[in-house]
Amino acid sequence: MLPIHPALVHFPIALLVFSVLADLFGKIGNSAALRAAGRWALFGALIGAAVAIPAGFFDWSRQDIGPEVREHVRLHMIVGLVLFVTLVGLNLWRWFFIDRDPQRGSLGWPYLIAGALALGLTFYQGYLGHELVVDHGVGVKSSAHGAAPGKTQEHGSEHGH
Q1: So what's the pLDDT on residue 36?
Q2: Which of 64, 118, 123, 128 to pair with 90, CA 20 to 30 A apart?
């Protein structure tokens, strides 16, 4: 069975990026529609993360990994859980302190900065996941259909690469 987690993580990542950008442009352009889109995208990112996290645990339980890679997976999991708590916090901040108060209908810079920090954490989390796949082969099945050693270099040198 193929890993599920890598296919699911792109939804919360994309929704968080969209949320922060919609909120930023909504603040700059004073657009209620963009702020509403940002609010719903943030909620979607939370739901997506709530689905991606258990999928990650499920995929990890099916992997046979060594101790050095296990520590890297552990860091990825810890950062993922911190990111999930951050998404919960941003949603609570948004729904209970910003959207419920009509006098404070616009987003403040502290919220936007917190969103940008969440994006930074998201990009770091993606980097850790990328390292797991590319550097350690986690979730990647070995294939005997690749190019033979040296073939790619010979082919590349023929064309002046």
Answers
A1: 92
A2: 128
- Asked if residue 20 lies in contact with residue 147, where contact means CB atoms within 8 angstroms, the answer is no
Q: In which band, very low, low, confident or very high, does the pLDDT at 123 lie, cut at 50, 70 and 90?
A: very high
Count of residues in the chain: 161
With 0-12 / 13-18 / 19 or more C-beta atoms within 10 angstroms meaning exposed / middle / buried, residue 136 is middle
Name the pLDDT band for 160 (thresholds 50, 70, 90): very low
Domains in the chain and their CATH numbers?
A: 5-138 (1.20.120)
User: Structure pTM?
Assistant: 0.81
Residue keyed to tokens 């616009």: 106
**Separation CA 131–CA 86 (nearest Å):** 23
